[in-house]
Amino acid sequence: MQTKPLEPGVEITSALTVDELEEVKARGFHAVVCNRIEGESEDFPDEARYREKAEQLGLAWVHIPVKPGEYSEADIRAFAEALQQLPRPLLAFCRSGKRATHLWAYAKRQYEQCELAELFTAAHAAGVDLEDQRQGLERSAQ
User: Fold this and answer.
1) What is the CATH number of domain 4-140?
2) pLDDT (tens digit, 9 = 90+) per residue, 7-47?
3) Which InterPro entries does the UniProt record give (predicted)?
C-alpha cells in the first residue's frame, strides 16, 4: 500500500483490499474515507465487509460513493464534514486516488476557501492532475 499526502493528516491511496485495512491501522491511521461504489469492479463488491473490518480494528469509516467526475454538492459537503470531524491521520481512497483527491480539493476550496494554486500543487505532489476539474473548482468558491 502506497499513500501520498494531500495535507498534514490527510493522505490518499488507490484501491484497498479488506485485509489491507490492518496495514492502514498499523501505519497509524485513525479514519478511512472510501469513495468507491459498491460493485464498481470485482475487487470492490461489498462496502459492508470493509466497514465491518474497519470497525473491528477501531478505525472510523465513512463511505461517500461517487462516480468519477460526478461530484454533487452533498458529496462535497460529506467529504468536508469528514475532513472536519474524523480523527487524523485519515486515509481516503478510491480505485486510483483520483476521486478522493477531487473531493478533497472541492471540499477545501468550497468550505475553507483554499487557493487553487495550493490545491493544484498538493494534488500534483500526490500524483493527481486537477486540470480537468479547474472550471468546477473555480466556480465552487464563488
Assistant:
1) 3.90.190.10
2) 999 999 999 999 999 999 999 999 999 999 988 888 887 89
3) BLH_phosphatase-like, Prot-tyrosine_phosphatase-like
